[in-house]
Amino acid sequence: MDPQLTSIIVPSEEIAHIEECLSRLVEDTGSDYALLLDKSGQVISSKGDGDRQDITALGALIAGVFASSREVAKLLRERDFRASFQQGVRENIFIALIEEQWILCIIFNKGTHIGLVKVLTKKATDELAAVLERVRQQHKARDEVLGSAFRTSMEDTIDLLFRD
């Protein structure tokens, strides 16, 4: 099983890729806002309307939507639901799961066609999945180096403490 990314720091060069992808998605779809969250609802990055004050609460609630939809999927004998669409009077939200770790949320108004959002979101999720994989590999490599260095240091310290 892959590690939860809530404890992994996404490097700045990868944040730049994420922000570029979100900006392109907002621009190409004509959406108001795009959010990238981890599964716990923590905001990794966001692009669009800068006036949103509710981003932290929105992230937590969107993560809750996916947690509850996972349980609904189990009841329906589905593995999970990969996407969710919620239609409002003024705004719509399209939410897509990236791998099992990140959630991409697009907020758009009635002037934006849902078909365009779905197609371009699929393209963005593929791109973001590649970023996620690079982050995982960097984290794994760092853990292996730190684990080895820590183990060697600990063995040396134990040897010093218990020498004959």
Automatic annotation (TrEMBL):
GO terms for molecular function: guanyl-nucleotide exchange factor activity; molecular adaptor activity. It comes from Chloroflexus aurantiacus (strain ATCC 29366 / DSM 635 / J-10-fl). Pfam families: Robl_LC7 (PF03259). One of its GO terms (biological process) is positive regulation of TOR signaling. PANTHER family: LATE ENDOSOMAL/LYSOSOMAL MP1 INTERACTING PROTEIN. SMART domains: Robl_LC7 (SM00960). SUPFAM superfamilies: Roadblock/LC7 domain (SSF103196). Residues 18-108 form the Roadblock/LAMTOR2 domain. This is Roadblock/LC7 family protein. It comes from the Bacteria.
